Amino acid sequence: MTEEIAVSFHRVNFTYTGSPVIVNATFSIPHHTFTTIVGPNGGGKTTIIKLILGLLKPTRGSIEVLGTTPENARPFIGYMPQHLHFDPHFPATVMDIVLMGLLKNNRPIGPFGKKTREKAMEALTRLGMEKFAHRHFASLSGGQRQRVLIARALVTDPELLLLDEPTTNVDTVAEIDLFDLLSEMSERMTCVVVTHDLGFVSQYVKEVICVNREVMVHDTAHLTGDVVTKLYGGSVRMVQHRHGG
Amino acid sequence: MTQFFIDLKMHAFLQHAIWTAILVSIPCGIVGSYIVTRRISYVAGGIAHTVLGGLGIARYFERVYHLEWLHPIYGAIGAALLAAFVIGWTSIKAREREDTVISAIWAIGMAIGIIFIARTPGSSEDLMSYLFGSILMVSEKDLILIAVLDAVIIVCSFVLYHQFFALSFDEEFARLRGVKVDSYHLIFIGLTALTVVLLVTVVGIVMAIALLTLPVAISGIFTRRMWQLMLMSAFLTTAFTIGGIILSYGPDLPAGAVTIILTGIAYFLALSWSTWSGRNTSR
Lengths: 245, 283
Fold this sequence. Notes:
The complex is a heterodimer.
Chain A: E1 5-16, E2 19-30, E3 34-38, H1 45-53, E4 60-65, H2 70-73, E5 77-80, H3 94-100, H4 114-126, H5 142-154, E6 160-164, H6 172-185, E7 190-194, E8 207-212, E9 214-219, H7 225-232
Helix pairs in contact in A: 3-5, 4-5
Chain B: H1 2-10, H2 12-38, H3 41-64, H4 72-93, H5 98-119, H6 124-132, H7 140-159, H8 161-169, H9 171-176, H10 181-222, H11 226-249, H12 255-277, H13 279-282
């Protein structure tokens, strides 16, 4: 194995108030790949992401992220959460939100500098949201907010990008756009995307991590509707694609 | 009303009241903005009521043991910071039980205060001013103390603006960016405690929460950035407080109560206007 590994789980168990959420998970995600995590709701997809971030600690087993512990890897991880519990009228512009991604614990006093703002604008441009920089965040549509939050995750040029359900409120065209972008970025960074929808993503990724208490890694070329239905009771939408070549 | 302006030139107590209104409104707007956007006004409510315990104890020792230096406000600061620490620590350690702990602190603080006030000779007037404010009784010494607390709150909020901002919007994300979320949360609750102590002077324990939240709620309709929200809230609070002093002066009404009525009317007018014009949803 000469290939560099971004994330590795070794016999990880996670139990929440007595009931097992993740059972004996062993898998790894190679560097500079576009990987997706799928599975039914409540199957433990978000738990996997929170374990990678060190927000949750495994009950048993070990996790290594970017060659170190999840906590130490945090500065090099970009993260977009699935749910955001914020005040619907929270007084912030799109720019304010993206700048939050560049926050450090020991930052100098006062407003963000010009260079920092340029960086934030760059991240917004990558997601086609530069026109919205000075808009009130709360006034955006669900899909636009998600793009802003992806920009916030991207703004630090992370080595590992974790997106939890980035396509929930997004229409099909925007979904394809986003996957195109992620696929392009995965040449520079490891992209891990949680989704409950295998429909489009199987065109872009080589491997799918299926999570339903147990974790299995499937090659998308061998992933048929049958396998998915058997594993997850048909709750994952699946379209089979012929991969060229 | 003209009588007020004639008397304002002559009486120091009126000038002190105006200065107090201005000084208290600034931290009130700053801290209130975070409290409203983080939806933790019950934390401020809990701290405000606990303050009665500190006021009662300090007043008791001042009177009974003739400790002239022991200003009741020291008791208030002590009680508020203690309550802040317990509430902040609970929210870090056991989030789901926070409201129960606040209710307990709220009631116990008041109970302690009432017992000490009952045991203090000739202090029933004190109780009224603690509960409903006494902005017309602020002395020059009080004013200096208020200015010092003011400075502490303003400097801390300025230095930690981005940290508090991130904490209010998305605590989990701030933590992932390496921000020491728990420490900043404790500092913030501490600043809330100091602000509440200041507000108790102006409108009293019972009405402090209104002055902390309603001007922010009004400003929220017209602003889209945190610092704008703070600025406008501070300005409105100053206007309501000074308005309360002026309007209550002629008919000799309690200034704190008039201030709150004024704030409440403005709040409901703003709310109706924003609902009617659809401004709240179309921003």
